[in-house]
Amino acid sequence: MFPEDIAPHIIPDPSGNLRYRCLGCEAEHSIEKLLYTCPDCGKVLLIEDGDFDRLKEIPGPVWRRIFDYRRMLKVPAMKGIYRYHEFIGPVLPLSSIVYLGEGHTPVVEANGLLQKKAGIRFFYKNDGQNPSASFKDRGMASAFSYINFLVNTGKVSDVLAICASTGDTSAAAALYAAYLKPHIKSAVLLPHKKVTPQQLSQPLGSGAAVFEIPGVFDDCMKVVEALADGYNVALLNSKNAWRILGQESYSYEIAQDFDYDMAGKVIVAPIGNAGNITAIMSGFLKFLEAGVIDSLPKIVGVQSEHANPVFQYYRETDPQKRRFQPVTVRPSVAQAAMIGNPVSMPRVIHLVDRYNAAAGRDRVFFVEVSEQAIMDWELTANHNGHIACTHGGESLAGLVAAMAAGRVSADETAIVDSTAHALKFAGFQDMYFTDSFPPEFGITPDPAIANTPELVRPDDLEAVPAPGAPLEGEAFDRFVNRTAEEIARRLNLKRL
Ligand SMILES: *Cc1c(COP(=O)(O)O)cnc(C)c1O
Ligand SMILES: [Zn+2]
Known about the structure:
This protein has helices at residues 7-10, 60-70, 85-88, 112-118, 136-152, 168-179, 197-206, 217-230, 241-247, 249-257, 275-289, 309-315, 345-359, 371-383, 390-404, 426-433, 473-490; strands at residues 18-22, 28-30, 45-49, 107-109, 121-126, 159-164, 184-191, 209-213, 234-235, 265-270, 298-304, 364-369, 413-418.
């Protein structure tokens, strides 16, 4: 079976000493209670493992083989993000882990034409191939596994999971909560008319209580925070540090998929509430510290010009002069990232400093891109065999912008995050194809990419079939032949 040095580590036992660490006053708090902000100073938290050093007792090359052998396991709890159990949720027994198929999303190399257009070798990591069709499932699997653990051990009961969302968080939260019925119920708050119909259908279909709130996401977030502060609810936004732990799996998977060789690699991801970029940095830092990887990849965080507070902050090159300023967002096709006051900003500031310090040079960069570039690159990617969502377009536009700014060079290899599935944002594709974007987006379709269906109904046909009224005999033959001829004419097909 498994080699002798690996076998004892294949199935992990609960271990570690997780605790919340406040990024404001540095206080530590027990994880026995669900906390979202520091009870002492109100600032955001991260979860640390007080016994992290025990992981260094296993040499990096052995960790790599442990993860590689774990790929062969048929234990559901170890099939998703908890392949990296010791780095994500070491205190959890496998019996509490909720696995709905999240994680281990495909890494797909861009085809030759697209790489040529972008001017660099790159891969998409398709996080839209998670169960609720976005990366948010990674964080939810972690947060809900922990809540499930609290339920199983009698520490909490009748949990109401609540979140504010630009669409995908609520889809993911509602899915995991529905799976854990009857112990957990969910309620989601969405900005009215600011999520796509596909995204709205998801929490509705999962049976969550769905509330639409006037305003934008930042307004919803304040209402949810008031609920979390004043009532007995479990907050599932990325303010919840358990979400960050689960999303670190994105980095671990990339490391493993590229044989733990991060030299010359560039990770590109969109930024909204900044939970994802936080997790990506934290994940690579933990793997570096444990010796699983020997160098840190470059990271490029991308924002739309219409929602760019993180980009604005880092535009100031003198760290002493940087001041965080929330922005008023404008409509964006990268709608899930349309956030002007990211909750995780203090985490970003903390981790960018740590990341650059650990690398010994600047390794995290931020770029902004236009709405036009987001749509053009999304559709160009999808024209070349990808399933990028608008945020996947934003990432690719960001890679191209980072190259133009000299942050990334053509001899590097990029891994570009498509954070959701294209289908969730089909409405924006439709606006592009029918040239019907409201003016505030500032998007003009490129006729070379626009695509609309053509109705084929030759004028000389007296009868065509209709639902419930099929054609028969000669009329049917004539319909088939004339329609085929018409399509052949439009496609310029040659007769055999
Ligand atoms: C949530 C989300 C983002 C933004 O991620 P943050 O962690 O909020 O920065 C980007 N793309 C999609 C599809 C999302 O659902
Ligand atoms: Zn504090």
